[in-house]
Amino acid sequence: MTTYDSSSRTSVGSLPAPPFWICVLLGLVMIAAGILVLGDIMLVTLISTIFIGWVSIIAGAFEVVHAFWTKGWGGFVWQVILGILYIAFGIVLVSQPVASALILTYVLGLVLVVSGFVRILLGVTHWREAGWIMLLSGVFGVAAGFVILTGFPMTGLWVLGFLLGVDLISHGIGWLAYAWRSPVAVSGT
């Protein structure tokens, strides 16, 4: 029987924890990037839309190529159709970034509302198992979705960039918290 020590910071395989200064540097860089993104959220929204479009085009091309490489696996026609849909979606995003940003933001608002209601139901259903956290998360999701949808189409010009900026800042804060909670930072060595 094998036992695992969950107190070790090297719980992911045998990888050592990153040095303190790397965690701090990564946290500071991400916070700075988030602040930079929040400086021009409309531009970042358009850049994000174009980036998503190019990723979709590349993924679609790989899907089509993969369908031909693995012809004997079955589902060849579906893989080709899916790849073509990815490519078409990407072309639309790249060719019309403003309209695409609006569409992506609207879909994001709908997804937030629906997933928020699902989390609220799960929170109520599992109240005894700390369901209040799920309920709170659901309320936040529904509120965020309604903010996006009620402010549409103006929210389509800034929401994606704003969310990216906030995500970068929160990720940076997470790395800083991780750095200061590490045993090296606690012991002072």
Characteristic terms for this protein:
single chain, mainly alpha, 7 helices, globular, Acid_resist_chaperone_HdeD, DUF308_memb, transmembrane, membrane, HdeD family acid-resistance protein
What do these coordinates show?
Pfam families: DUF308 (PF03729). The chain is mostly helical and 189 residues long. The chain has one domain. Helix content is 77%, strand content 0%. The chain is globular.
Describe the secondary structure blueprint for this structure:
Elements: H1 20-39, H2 41-69, H3 76-95, H4 97-125, H5 131-150, H6 159-181, H7 183-187
Helix pairs in contact: 1-6, 2-3, 2-4, 2-6, 3-4, 4-5
Organism: Bradyrhizobium archetypum
GO cellular component, one term: plasma membrane
Protein name: HdeD family acid-resistance protein
Structural class: mainly alpha
Per DSSP E runs of 2 or more residues, the count of β-strands stands at 0
Report how far the terminal alpha carbons are from each other: 35 Å
**Would you list the SSEs in sequence order as H and E?**
HHHHHHH
How is the main sheet built? Answer: none
Rg, Å, rounded: 22 Å
Poorly predicted sequence stretches spanning 5 or more consecutive residues: none
Proportion in β-strands: under 5%
